[in-house]
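Office hours follow-up: a student asked to see two folded examples consecutively, so here they are.
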Amino acid sequence: MKSPLLTLPGAVPAEGVDEGVAAHYGDLFREQRALADGTGCVDLSHRGVVTVTGEDRLSWLHLLLTQHVSELPAGQATEALILSPHGHVEHALYLVDDGTTVWIHVEPGTQDALVGYLESMRFFYRVEVADRTADIAVVHLPAGSITPAPDGVVVRETSYGRDLFLPRADLESFVRSAGPAAGVLAYEALRVEDHRPRLGFETDHRTIPHEVGWIGTAVHLNKGCYRGQETVARVHNLGRPPRRLVFLHLDGSEVHLPPHGAPVRLAEDGPEGRRLGFVTTSARHHELGPIALALVKRNVPAEAELLAETTAAAQELVVQP
C-alpha cells in the first residue's frame, strides 16, 4: 500500500519490508534531530493493523500471548509475542485496549498470517478478529511531542512516543499539519540507539525472546501457559540463551554500512576469521555516527573488539552473556 505522503517534497521511497513509505525527505540527520527534540512525525502507514473485539478479547489473548493482558487497563500500551511450539518468535504485537477493542500494529505484511492464526484459535470464545490495514494507518509522534491526537483516534503511548491509529483517509492532512515529516530511516536510527529489537531484523527463524532483550518488555514470566512457554522457562532458569544482542559503535571512517546479515567476527581474527554472528540493523546516527545492532554467540567475550563485515566495531552490552 503506497502512502500518499510519498508526494511530499524530497520524499525518497523506502525499500524492502518498509516499501510504501518514505525512507527520508531529503535530510536524514535533520529528521533525526527533529524526532529527538520531540517534533515532527513518522509515517508508518505500511504497518499491519489488526483489531480484536468482544467480551472475551483480553482473557482470550492472555492464553495466546507471552504478555499478561487479562487485566490490561484501558489505554495502557504493551508489547507481546506469539511463539512457535519450540519457543521461537513468530509474531511481535504492539497493542493497546481502548475499553472495547484491542488495537494491534505489526510488521508490514505479517497481518494476514497473524489473523489466520488468531482465527484458528477462536473456538467458543466471544471474540472477533479483523484486519484493519486497509482503513487504518499508524503514525508515530516522538516522545515530548505536543501535537494533539485528533478526537476519537486511538493512541498507544510508550516511553519513546505515541502511535496513533489514524483513519487512512486522514493520513495526509494530519501529517502535513503535524510536520515536519521524518522518514523511516530516522525512526530506525533512534530505534537502534534505544536497543529495541524488530521482528525480521533482530530475529530469524530460531530466535528466542531472551536473545534480543524481549524478556520483561514483551514476555511476562509469571503468567499461565502459552505456546512456547516451556522454552522460555527453561532458558530463563538456566540463564543460557545461545545468542545475545549487542549494540555496535562502528568505525566512523568507513563510508559503507554493513548490511543486514553481514558477518560479525573477532577483530583479532580478521575478515577471514570464524563467523560469530551477524549484523541485524545498521544506521547513521546524527550524534553517535555509524551504529548497529548485531546478534552474536553467547560466549563472545563482552570486551572483545569485533568486525562487522570489514568495519571495526566496539560492542556495548544489550543482553548479558
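And the second, which I mentioned at the end of office hours:
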Amino acid sequence: MFLLLFLLNLSWLSVPGWSQRSRPPAKAECKFSDGKTVSIDYSSPRMRGRKIFGDLVPYGEVWRAGANEATTFVTNSNLILGGKEVPAGHYTLFTLPNPDKWMLIVSKKTGEWGIPYPGEQFDFARMEMKVTKIPSPVEDFKISFDQTGSACTLHLDWETTRASIDVTQKK
C-alpha cells in the first residue's frame, strides 16, 4: 500500500503545472560600459494554450511579472528608468497591465512571495511602459534587455504582447 501511494505521488509531479519545473527560474541582465549592472531574477511561466493578458493576467490588476517568488530587480548603479530616478539597490518588480498601456511598479518591499502585491505604500515609483504586439506568440514569459551603447531597453514578452521601458545610468 505504501509503495502504491508513493508511486501515485510521483505521478502527480510529472503532470504539467504540478511541478515547479513548469515555471523555471530565469535571469536577465544589462551590463553598462563601466561594468555596473542591472539584473532581474524571475520565474518564467508557460502559456500552455491559455489566453494570458485580459484573462489569466487580468487587465487593471497588479501582476507580479512572472510566477513563484517575486521578481527581483537589483542594480549597483543609479538609474533613469522610464524617465524616473532609481538609486542603486534591491527592489521588487510588479506591473499593472492594460490593453494599450502598462505601468512598471518598482517596489521597495523585497523578499516576499510574488503575490499578493504588498501595496502602493511600498511603491518606490511607477513608470509607463510602451506596449506593442509581437507577430508570433511567445510561449514562455521572458524578460530581456536590448543594449545600445550606454542604455538598455527592458522588455517583458508573453503571448503576443511586449511591454518595454528604457533604462540608462544616471550620470
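Two things to take away from it. The chain has a mean pLDDT of 89. The first helix runs from residue 2 to 13.
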